[in-house]
Amino acid sequence: MLQNRVNPFGQIVKTAHRGAWLGNRGVIHNAGKEIVRQFKVKAWITCALQFRGRHREIMQPNRWTELFFLDEATAFAAGHRPCFQCRYADHQRFKMYWLKGNSGYGFNMKTAVTEIDNILQLERIAADKTKVSYNESLDLLPDGAFVAYQNNAYLVKAKQLHLWTAAGYEKPIPFPVLDEVQVLTPKSFVNMFTAGYVPHMML
Asked: 68-85: per-residue pLDDT in tens?
């Protein structure tokens, strides 16, 4: 069993459960197929499991490390965006709604995605390599956002919280009575969801 599944906290864990999406942070494994770093590049992407019939052996030496996610909402919580190559239409939709939700940066569709990656890098990981999060009212969060509650990750959907597990989501619970909650999904992605981007959720 390889350590190649990513949870909403951005942690890369071992599990027998497979994911519905593929991801990439560069070459982050060694010759023994062990994870040795959190990332190598700023372009953290989410890819389709299948693309033009290509087949890859998992964790080949000196090739990018294949990571897997339960769904797209999980990938966004971990800080990954759609791939420009294998998910071109999704990437264009992502960029359009990201720009709409984050208009304060003054970017447009001609802006290089590397500029967005630079912002995402600041939103997802701190200088000490811990995950960046922020506090917000539950009532202000759109569907698809992830929050931390009682040391677990929960997906926000239809004014309920769905507990994330590697195997899928458990029975939802009503919003707890809290002034604010810790948000795991990067702020600009949350803004993007509010602007109209609906991520794939395994519900």
From this structure: 999 999 999 999 999 999
Q: What does each C-alpha distance from 133 to 30, 75, 124 come to in angstroms? A: 29, 15, 7
| Tokens 């949350």, located at residue | 190
Q: What would the two tokens of residue 35 be?
A: 């994870």
Phi and psi at residue 129, to the nearest 5°: 75, 10
Rounded to 5 degrees, φ, ψ at 190 are: -60, -45
Q: How many CB atoms lie within 10 A of CB 51?
A: 12
> For the chain, what are the domain ranges?
3-95
Task: Find where tokens 């897997």 sit.
Answer: 68
Q: How far apart are CA 115 and CA 127, in angstroms?
A: 19
Nearest by Cα to 42 from 100, 123, 99, 96: 123
- Close Cβ partners of 85 (under 8 Å, ≥ 6 residues apart): 51
Separation between Cα atoms, residue 130 and residue 144, nearest integer Å: 22
pTM (global) more than 0.90: yes
Q: Which of 88, 70, 90 is nearest to 4 (CA)?
A: 70
> Pairing relation of β-strands 168-169 and 45-47?
unpaired
